[in-house]
Amino acid sequence: MSTATAIQLEVSSPQAAEAQPLLDALSEQLGARFGSDGRASFTEWQANDPRYIFLLARMEGEAVGCGAVRPLAAGIGEVKRMFAKYSRQGIGEAVLQQLEAKAQQAGYAELWLETRVANTEACRFYLKNGYQRRPSYGRYVGRDNSACFGKHLLLSDAAESPSHD
């Protein structure tokens, strides 16, 4: 009965006013479900560094999703703060695909991420989008409740040629 609504994606900032309600909703969900809200993700955010990528998704002008990539190690970015206000609308997939494209443009060869083992929806989502379980990294080493994933980014002709937009 409903018709598909186009999702618009734009580069933004985690400090943007429209991003705050989304990040707050994500933190509330994570805190209620898993006891930790993940708010520390942007404490070292470098707004003027192109390796730090934050996307905002909109449908009919409404901010409905977000996601970020930050540098983790040489050539490796970490996906953070993925959130879709409405489930099963393609928002998360659109954000993730655009994050991957922007990450390639920024010079990342791989993306890693962590979610909770108990967050079965997120685990399924990342597997469905080509991510594979990988050993825990960084502060997640030794945490049995963490599920870490990674994906190699393939350099495409689009990523190697300059953009004309």
TrEMBL record:
Keywords: Acyltransferase, Transferase. Transmembrane segments: none annotated. SUPFAM superfamilies: Acyl-CoA N-acyltransferases (Nat) (SSF55729). PROSITE patterns: GNAT. Gene3D superfamilies: 3.40.630.30. Residues 9-160 form the N-acetyltransferase domain. PANTHER family: AMINOALKYLPHOSPHONATE N-ACETYLTRANSFERASE-RELATED, AMINOALKYLPHOSPHONATE N-ACETYLTRANSFERASE-RELATED-RELATED. This is GNAT family N-acetyltransferase. It comes from Hymenobacter nitidus.
